[in-house]
Structure formats: structure tokens, C-alpha cells
Predict the 3D structure of the following.
Amino acid sequence: MARVTVEDCVLKVPNRFELVLLAAQRAREITSGAPLSVDRDDDKNPVVALREIADETVALEHLEESLVRGMQKHIEIEEPEESPELALEHSLFAAPAATAGEGLEAEELEEEALEEEVEEDLEEAMLSSEEEERGEEAEAEEPPAEESFPDPDENL
């Protein structure tokens, strides 16, 4: 295949938009040093990527997965669960709760207290930003100092 055309690749990937995304992803992989599955023949990376897709020498599922992974903004990281030793130490030093109901009430009270603190902090921040804005507005309202130029008729 001397020239790669989209028609050669559309047979493998029917959606042209998806084809562009997959070819671009493969071209990025080639640029970052991935091994080629076809001869380069002095072609640029996008052309090599299209030739690989047309020849089916690269797995399309792999390209789709790497494309999705690259576009994700939130990547879930598995955090290790709390070990039983930490839970044991916490139970040794924590105040004992008489019943399960009282423990829940204490947690709810703590959450409410935290929420109130956050709300107070937000209100203070809003007030301080409003005061700053008022100060900037007052500075902006002051008329600029007029420059005095000598009157040319005065010297006559």
C-alpha cells in the first residue's frame, strides 16, 4: 500500500471519528517509543499508525483502552484497608460508648460541629473578600489627579 487512505482503514474501523481517535492514540504511542509493527518507509507517525490499523497488526481493543485511560480525569487508586491493629489501638484510647445508639449520636454531633465550623469559615472568607472588593471599588472611584499645565496665555 503506497498511500494510506481512510477508505483502507474504514473497513476495519467503520466510524471515521473513532478511526481518527485510534490512529492519533497509536501515533502518540509510536512517538513515545512503542515498537512498530510495519516498516516505516520514511512515513510520519500518523501514516504508520494508519498503515498498522489497515494491516490489522495492532490490537484495536488495546488502543481503545489506552485512549480511554488517557482521557480519564479521575483515576481510582486502591487504598489499603485499615489494619486490625489500628482499630485495636483506637479502641484502647477512645472513650467507650455505652450503646451503639449513643456512638452514632456522638458521630452525628461531631459531623454537625464540623459542618458549622466550615460554614463559619466560608462566611468569614466571603465577608473578607467583600471588604477587599469594596476597598478596590473605593480606590477605583477616586478621580485621577489632574495634572496642571502652565497656561500659554498667562505669559503674554
Remarks:
- Residues 127 and 144 are 28 Å apart (CA to CA).
- Residues 100-141 form the longest helix (42 residues).
- The two ends are 91 Å apart (CA to CA).
- Residues 106-138 form one domain.
